[in-house]
Specification:
Elements lengths: L16 H10 L5 H22 L14 H8 L17 H20 L3 H18 L6 H13 L10 H8 L1 H6 L1 H7 L14 H25 L3 H5 L2 H7 L15 H21 L6 H18 L3 H11 L5 H7 L9
Helix pairs in contact: 2-4, 2-6, 2-15, 4-5, 5-6, 6-10, 6-15, 10-13, 13-14, 14-15
């Protein structure tokens, strides 16, 4: 038999596993999606520290609900862990107040994108020190925010919609003559009036957020499978009927048990299957739409507005930065 003829003008390139792996984690991309996460995370870090400062003496210092001695007993007891913070070794309220105010300022600088690389590291580290000290008084909001802040340090979220971007376009010679200024901000060299180029670290930081989010949803869903209410479909009713978290009266849904059961099982299926259905392009929009309903409902009806908001911000990692680039006017920077 004759071998089939191949057109000499057509070449088929077959990717290896390592090529696909490299493209998945390290293909250069823009910072538009990370910039949205940066703004929201920076503002939330400032908000969290501001709330802690309203009653700081109850959380840290000599009169804290869990003082330094109790903290040492918890984390350095018979089963010691690796959690460490210098706030657990001081009772000086002056030092603690300075720490919290500096962390609040770092969050605002991160949101504004001023010296983004430095402010992101400061905001993450200072918040981590506080989070490690707040044993027994943490919530999901704190954990999601510190997770996003950590991964923002890996990318260049200040390459768009930031003070760094505006300053580099306005005073390009200053950044060219002072390399240390570019390193503090994490800016890439550009020509005056042009946006910063795509970078592989943006892709890597985004992938880390996406994978971490998949793990959170998977184990959250598996944990729900241990409860009978998620199997019999009554979990949604008990959630909206709980006066502890109720912000709007949704008890009327009790007249529609089928609706409660459908919402319960849909939420459970979505959470367990999130790590599988969020990756294909044709199921991703529906997955993110359900995320809007789930976390929007948590924010509106269960009184956890900040937590629901930050979970939606984390899901923003699955929005294509190039879609945002087109939607926001082809990535126009602040100087235009």
């Amino acid at each position: 038999m004759m071998a089939p003829l191949k057109s000499p003008g057509i070449q088929f390139e077959q990717k290896t596993f390592f090529d696909s792996f490299r493209e998945f984690f390290f293909a250069p991309t823009s910072a538009h999606a990370l910039a949205v996460i940066r703004i929201a995370t920076g503002c939330m870090i400032a908000y969290i520290h501001l709330i802690w400062m309203l009653n700081l003496e109850s959380f840290m210092g000599p009169f804290a609900l869990i003082n330094n001695e109790a903290w040492q007993a918890i984390h350095r007891g018979q089963v010691p862990d690796t959690k460490w913070t210098y706030l657990a070794y001081t009772e000086s309220m002056s030092l603690i107040w300075c720490h919290e105010m500096l962390a609040c300022m770092a969050g605002l600088l991160l949101a504004g994108g001023f010296l983004t690389r430095t402010s992101s590291l400061l905001a993450w580290f200072l918040t981590l020190m506080t989070v490690h000290r707040m044993t027994g008084m943490l919530f999901g909001l704190d954990q999601i925010t510190i997770m996003l802040a950590m991964y923002l340090c890996l990318g260049r979220p200040g390459n768009v919609w930031s003070a760094d971007c505006w300053l580099q376009n306005r005073y390009s010679t200053l950044f060219e003559n002072h390399l240390w200024l570019r390193r503090l901000s994490g800016s890439l060299p550009t020509e005056c009036g042009t946006e910063m180029p795509d970078c592989w670290s943006n892709t890597f930081a985004t992938r880390m957020i996406q994978l971490h989010l998949c793990v959170i949803y998977l184990f959250g869903g598996l944990g729900k499978l241990r409860g009978e209410m998620w199997w019999d479909g009554s979990a949604m009713w008990f959630s909206v009927a709980s006066y502890e978290y109720q912000s709007l009266d949704m008890t009327w849904v009790g007249h529609f048990p089928i609706l409660c059961s459908m919402a319960t099982h849909l939420t459970l299926f979505w959470e367990v299957g999130y790590c599988a259905i969020v990756w294909p392009r044709w199921t991703r929009p529906w997955t993110l739409l359900v995320a809007c309903f789930v976390h929007g409902g948590i924010a509106l009806f269960l009184g956890m507005v900040t937590f629901g908001f930050m979970m939606l911000v984390a899901n923003f990692a699955f929005v294509s930065p190039y879609y945002l680039k087109r939607w926001m006017g082809v990535g126009k920077n602040l100087s235009e």
